[in-house]
Structure formats: C-alpha cells, structure tokens
Amino acid sequence: MAEPPVIIWQQEVESVLRYRDLVPRLEDALGKFSRRDRAEVVQPVRAAVPLQKHSGFMGLMPTYMENDGVLSTKFVCFYKREKGSTLPAVQATVVLLDPERGNVKAVMDGEVITTMRTAAVSAISAKLLMASGAEVLAILGTGTQALSHYNIFTEMFSFKEVRVWSRTKENVERFVRSVGGGVRGCGSAEEAVRGADVIVTVTGSTEPVLHGQWVKAGAHVAAVGACRPDWRELDDVLMKSAVVYADSREGALSESGDVILSGAQVFAELGDVINGTRPAEREKTTVFKSLGMGVEDAVSAQLVFDQWTAKQTKP
Ligand SMILES: NC(=O)C1=CN([C@@H]2O[C@H](COP(=O)(O)OP(=O)(O)OC[C@H]3O[C@@H](n4cnc5c(N)ncnc54)[C@H](O)[C@@H]3O)[C@@H](O)[C@H]2O)C=CC1
Ligand SMILES: O=C(O)C1=NCCCC1
C-alpha cells in the first residue's frame, strides 16, 4: 500500500520556495514545453468550468513530465471580483502524484506557487525580450500579482524608477507603503506607462487598461490578467503593433481575449526563444501574453516537495 499523501500548506511552501531555484526550473520547463516532445511534457489546454453564480471559473491543469517522473494537477478557481470585494481573486491547490502507481504523494497550497511562478515567468519574458538598458518599470494593478512581480523584477533587474497605478488612490498608497516606498504612485494608467521600458499588467479588468498609443516604441509588456476569451487588458492598437509572444500558443488561441479579439498573430512561445528556434525581437515593441501553464506548476510543486522532504530528514 502506498504511503498517505503529505500536506504542505502555505507557510511551508513560502519557507522553501525561492526565486533563485524556481527561475532556472521554469526556463527549462518552458523550453521543454515548446519542443512538443510527449516524453518531455504532456499538458492539455486548461479545462475551465464556469462558476456562473459566482462570476468565476475552476481551471484544471494536469501535466505529465515522463522523463522527469513528474505528474501533477492544479485546481485553480479565479473570479471577476467587484470593486470593494474582500474575497480572493485566485485560490489554488496542487496535487503531486506518483506516475507509476497513480497515488497522490502530496497535496499542497497552490497560491504561493501560482503567485511566484507567474511573476517568475514574466521576469523571464523581460530577461529575454526587454530592450537593453531598460530603466523604467510600470505596474498596472496593486494586488497579489503586482507585489510578486514587484519583488522579482526588482530582485532580477536594476530599474532606476518603478511606477504603479491602480483604480483607487488608497490601493496605490497601500501598495507603495507595503514595499517600503521607492515606488512612484500614479494617478492614471497613462501617467504610469508613458515612457516606461517595461510594463506589467496584473489587473482583474475585463476591458483594456493599457492603450497602444501610450506605449513607448520598443517597450516590453508582460500581460498577466484577462485569461478568458472575452476578457481584455490590452487594446487592439497595442496588440496589432507589437510582436506577440505567449507561454502556450494553443492556450493563447483558446483563452486570451487580447489575442483572439484583436486577431493578432502569436509570433512565438517563450520556450521557442529559450530553445533558440525563434528570435527575441528586443528592439521592437513586444507583448508577452501569460495565461499560466500546468508545466510551470508541476516543476514548482516538485521543487517544493524536494525541498520540503529534505527539510524533514535534516537532523
Ligand atoms: N497568467 C497567469 O498565470 C495568472 C494570471 N492571473 C490573473 O492576474 C490578475 C491579477 O491577479 P491577482 O493579483 O491575484 O488579483 P488581485 O485581486 O489581488 O489584484 C487585482 C488588481 O486589479 C485591479 N483591478 C480589478 N479590476 C480592475 C479594473 N476593471 N480596472 C483596473 N484595475 C482593476 C484591482 O484593484 C487589483 O489591484 C487576475 O486577472 C488573475 O486572474 C493570476 C494568476 C496567474
Ligand atoms: O495559471 C493560473 O494559475 C491562472 N491563470 C489564469 C487565471 C488565474 C490562474
């Protein structure tokens, strides 16, 4: 009989997961995904079950990495929240299984994993696609993802200026306080992004919050919100003038309103750039459309499991 699963909850995930370990694993996973070799990664497009009464979705994200012996699935519920709602926008759990026997090895909190791996993949997009000498970072949104993006972007890069915008002045002020100052709070999205070299959109908006006419030529945009086919964060002007990258081409074509409704072409996946099969158009305006992938959760969960197990066996 198999051992019962271990439960690894939020504080423990937080205590073992570090960006410096996560980033190389994610780069490797993105490259493997884009090779479309079924011995490396099997990852169908996320199944999304509508939770109509609650304006949300439950996403199921199964992944198998045969060569690496990793089998997992994430359950993620995400919601369109009304202004002033105190309910969370995203809740997630990751289940890690033994691929040979099929038993569950671990059930772990998926919120920290989702928060950190999403920000880490955006940072990888910036590393690959932003112009050299980028100085100004703008973040639209001030929630969970805004903070994780702030943390990794300032850890990995040396921006001279960081700007942030949100719908309310209170949210902007709270965010600026939470990171200990050093960030310029802006009164409008336009003020935040004019002249910025890198722009991160991490809002719950379903309408464009970023307009192409504000975006400096050659800027890099990491677009993280709007993960349904009829939701938008970016307008048509930006989508049609930029070189568009995605984590998954199939994911973007079935889930991204910014891609589907603008009719923009997906030029490449991040993994293609990592594999050297498609170019990084650093000198052009680039958009990385992030939808989130099961393979990112799989390698993150395996990393958490390995670190957590090593911690248990230490004297
Ligand atoms: N691509 C991916 O892998 C992932 C994407 N997401 C998405 O990223 C987005 C942010 O997620 P969290 O930070 O966890 O949510 P959150 O609720 O913590 O923060 C959302 C932010 O967006 C702002 N916002 C909401 N509606 C807006 C509107 N209409 N216009 C302008 N701003 C608005 C809120 O005031 C808040 O600052 C969500 O759309 C979420 O679904 C989340 C996790 C992973
Ligand atoms: O990949 C994920 O996890 C999510 N993607 C889009 C919506 C929220 C969670």
TrEMBL record:
Oligomer status and interactors: Homodimer. Binds the thyroid hormone triiodothyronine (T3); T3 binding inhibits enzymatic activity.
Protein's organism: Poecilia reticulata
UniProt record, GO biological process: thyroid hormone metabolic process
**InterPro entries xref list:** NAD(P)-bd_dom_sf (IPR036291), ODC_Mu_crystall (IPR003462), ODC_N (IPR023401)
Catalytic activity entry: L-proline + NADP(+) = 1-pyrroline-2-carboxylate + NADPH + H(+); L-pipecolate + NAD(+) = Delta(1)-piperideine-2-carboxylate + NADH + H(+); (3R)-1,4-thiomorpholine-3-carboxylate + NAD(+) = 3,4-dehydrothiomorpholine-3-carboxylate + NADH + 2 H(+); (R)-lanthionine ketimine + NADPH + 2 H(+) = (3R,5R)-1,4-thiomorpholine-3,5-dicarboxylate + NADP(+)
In Gene Ontology terms, what is one molecular function of this protein?
pyrroline-2-carboxylate reductase activity
Q: Which family does it belong to?
A: Belongs to the ornithine cyclodeaminase/mu-crystallin family.
A cellular component term from Gene Ontology for this protein is: cytoplasm
EC main group: oxidoreductase
Protein name, entry field: Ketimine reductase mu-crystallin
EC number, as in UniProt: 1.5.1.1, 1.5.1.25
